[in-house]
């Protein structure tokens, strides 16, 4: 059986695979990000960085609870200045591999987002992913920026003003109307959307009666997140059909990736699969995706994209 090619277009880049290393998995070193690209990732995302260094939460910070993963790493990062050096080295290593580099940023205020973006832009990443799921420290209740169209748009506009590098805004799944927020960030200058971040959750150790994670709550990822992510991507694709989506959440197999593309994603973020299958997950998912496409008669990734929406 001849397998179809997995090449695809994303914001003008011709990628050899629609798979993207998601932020926060193995994005803390240039060597690991290059390894992901060699393993089959078409793009790679660095771990999120903020304005200042953060040590993160004490252990335990992650566990496999059976239906997925739960983590509360605590945004561990070296700060934007050091991250810019890491990004520059990573981009140098990725150049011969043909994999674009995505920087990921977070901050506590609208103004800080612009400042962090300006710093990491010095390394000339190909795309800046704006993680707006962190708490707004300028808000009385600490509401995440992703919680409302107004705050999400304000952060997007701040980053857009700070750099000419394309930006993708990473949306949260636990909001009343994700389509409305998607329209707001696109209107404010987003070139793409990453959907979605993890879903808040908790696991309790019944023997002790206490939460397992030191932070008590964490973010649910892996298979349990996939139906939520697919719904979010589907709704966003209908709301802003001209804006490419990095569909992320629960993609572990090639069929998972196919479903994400059918829902409307332009490319597919892969994170928890590295936990389950190792870095070689990218190559394995690529082979499985191509085999699925061949078996179902899809000659290209473009033909597969949004298939379920067209049929609906």
Textual characterization of the structure:
- The chain has a single domain, classed as Aldolase class I (TIM Barrel, Alpha-Beta Barrel), CATH 3.20.20.70.
- The strands form four sheets. The chain has an eight-stranded parallel barrel with strand order 3-4-7-8-9-10-15-16, surrounded by eight helices. A four-stranded antiparallel β-sheet has the order 5-6-14-11, with no helix packed on it.
- Strand 8, helix 4 (149-162) and strand 9 (167-171) form a beta-alpha-beta unit.
- The protein has helices spanning 30-39, 80-94, 110-120, 149-162, 178-187, 226-239, 254-263, 272-277, 281-296, 301-304, 307-311; strands at residues 8-10, 13-15, 19-21, 43-45, 62-64, 69-71, 101-105, 127-131, 167-171, 192-195, 199-201, 204-205, 210-211, 218-221, 245-248, 267-270.
- It is an alpha/beta fold and 312 residues long.
- The protein has eleven helices and 16 strands.
What is the strand arrangement across the widest sheet? 3-4-7-8-9-10-15-16
Q: Number of helical segments?
A: 11
**How is the main sheet built?**
8 strands, parallel, barrel
CATH architecture: Alpha-Beta Barrel
Overall 3D form: globular
Strand content: 15-25%
Rg over C-alpha atoms, rounded to the nearest angstrom: 18 Å
Mean pLDDT: 94
Output the CATH class name: Alpha Beta
Low-confidence stretches: none
Approximate helicity band: 25-40%
Distance between the termini: 30 Å
Q: From N to C, what is the helix and strand string?
A: EEEHEEEHEHEHEHEEEEEHEHEHHHH
Within the CATH hierarchy, at the fold level, what is the topology? TIM Barrel
Any idea what the CATH superfamily is called? Aldolase class I
- The structural domain count equals 1
DSSP E strands, number: 16
What would you call the structural class? alpha/beta
